[in-house]
Amino acid sequence: MNRSGLEVERVKSKDGKTMQPLCMAQHYQMFRIYRRSGVNADEQIILDRASSGDHIIVAHHNQFYSVPVRASDRGRITEVELVQQLLRIMETKADPRTPPVGILTTAKRPAWAKAREELIKNERNRHNLELLERCLCVVCIDDDVLPTTFNNPMKKEDRWIGDRDYANVLHHALHGGGSRHLGANRWFDKTFHAILGKDGMWGLTYEHSAGEAPAIFKAFEELTEKVDSMSPPDENLVPSHLPAPEKLEWCLTEQSLNDIREAMMNFDALVEDLDLCILWFEDYSKDFIKSCRVSPDAYIQLALQLTYFRLHGKLVATYESAGIRRFALGRVDCIRAASPEALAWAKAMCQGDPHGQTSQPNNAVDGSPKRVQFTIYSAERIRELFDLAVQRQTKEMNDNIYGQGIDNHLMGLRYAAKEAGEPIPEIFTDEAYAIVNHFALSTSQVTTKNDVIAGYGPVVPDGYGCAYNVRKNGFIFSVSAFHSDGRTSAVQFAQTLEQSLRDMAAMIKNSKK
C-alpha cells in the first residue's frame, strides 16, 4: 500500500468478453482517513503519507497508547519489536478511576463535536487528538469477553466460540457491549479497528465513510493469512531498545466529565436496543442456484423480499449496495429489490400462508381482517413469476453497477440545487420520495474467502439489516433489528428466511423446466 503497488482488481466487462479494471482508491485511503466530528457536518481528514503512517494507537483498559511502527534510523520496526510493545501495554493495570474518553466517539455527532471543542482547549488533549487522527489504525486489546446475555442462537447446533454464539461475537465487534463492558475501548472516528478478544476472537470495526466492505475485507483477510502463517513469538525475546509506548493522558474539565457520562448513558441504551441473530444456512449453496441459471445475489434478494412479505404482508423500500468501482473514485449506488415482479411472485408463494391474501368483508363484526385463502397458482405459474422477478432484479443490478442507477443521480441533483442556492425541487419534498427512501430492509452482500461474520444495524427504527456472505458450502446471514420497535425480530426474520430458502428450492425442483 505504501508503494501504491497493489494488483489492480478486474471484473468482466458488460459484453462479457473482456476484463476491466476497478478503481483501487479505497484500498489506499483506508489507513489515511479520519472522520472528525462537526456541529453541522463532519469533516473527512485525508492525510498524506508525510503526516501519517508512523504509528498505531493501541486501546487497552479504555486507555490509549501511541506505538511507533517506524524507527527514525531504519524504517519499519520488526514484528518481534511490535509484539514487545504490545506486551508492554498488556502488562498495564486497569484503573477504574480513569474516565473512558473513547466513549465520546459514540455520541451523536453534534454532541461529540461540542465535547471535542471542550477537549481541545487544553494543549495536552490537542496533542492526543492529533495522534489519534494521524494513526494508521486502532488496535483494541480487550481483556474480557461479552457475557452470555448477548447470545441469541437460532438453534443449539449453531457454531460457538466457547459459550458464546456468533451473535455475541458480532455484538463484541460492533460496539463492545457498551460502557459496562468493552465499548469504551474504541475510538470510532478512525476508519479501521482491529479487535482482539480474550478468548482468541478477533475482528474489525470500520467507519464507513472511508470505503466499502470489499476493500476493507480484502485487507482484513490478507492480514489474517499473514498472521496465520507467522510463528508464535519467542517467550525469551531480547528486550527492544525502542522507547516505551506513549500513553495518552487527558486533562478533563467538569464539562468533559459530564459529556462522558451522558455519552455512556446514550450508548448503553443503543446497545441494549440492538437485536442480532446469525443464520448459518447449509441446505444448499450458490452452486445449486447457478445450476438453475440464476444469479446467486438476485436469488438471495428475492428470498429477502419473500421473507419480509411473509412477516409483514407487504414489500418495503429495500437497499442493496451496488459497487460502482468500474468508475474512477466510484463508491456505491442503490439496487432496489422491491419491484412489482417481486411482489407478484411473493404473493403467489404465500397463497397458503397466513400472510397471503386478506380481505375485509362487509359483514365483519369485530372490524378485524378476515383471512381468505386463494390457491390459484400452479407450480409452473409460480416459477414463471419467479423468473420474471429474477429478470427484473438482474436488470436492476446491472443498471446500477454499470452506472445507470437512479439514486446517485437524484442525490447529485439535490445537492447541486442546494449549492446553487435554489429552492429544493418538489420531487425531494414529496411524500413518495420520503417513502422510497425509508429503507426498512437494508442489505448487502459481503463475500469473503473465509467464514466471516459481517453485520450492521438497521438504518430506520422499524427496519431490518441483513448482510450475507455467499459461501461454497452455504450462506451466512447476519440479521439485525431494534427491540424497541416491537414489530420486528431478528430471530423471527432469520427463521422465516430459512424457510423461504427451503421453499424456493422446492419451488424450483417442483416446477417443470
TrEMBL record:
Pfam families: Carn_acyltransf. The keyword Transferase applies. It comes from the Eukaryota. The lineage of its organism: Eukaryota, Metazoa, Ecdysozoa, Arthropoda, Hexapoda. The keyword Repressor does not apply. Residues 16-499 form the Choline/carnitine acyltransferase domain. InterPro entries: Carn_acyl_trans, CAT-like_dom_sf, Cho/carn_acyl_trans, Cho/carn_acyl_trans_2. Belongs to the carnitine/choline acetyltransferase family. The active site is at H208. Its EC number is 2.3.1.6. One of its GO terms (molecular function) is choline O-acetyltransferase activity. Coiled coil: none annotated. GO terms for biological process: acetylcholine biosynthetic process; neuromuscular synaptic transmission. PANTHER family: CARNITINE O-ACYLTRANSFERASE (PTHR22589), CHOLINE O-ACETYLTRANSFERASE (PTHR22589:SF14). One of its GO terms (cellular component) is synapse. This is Choline O-acetyltransferase. Keywords: Acyltransferase, Neurotransmitter biosynthesis, Transferase. SUPFAM superfamilies: CoA-dependent acyltransferases.
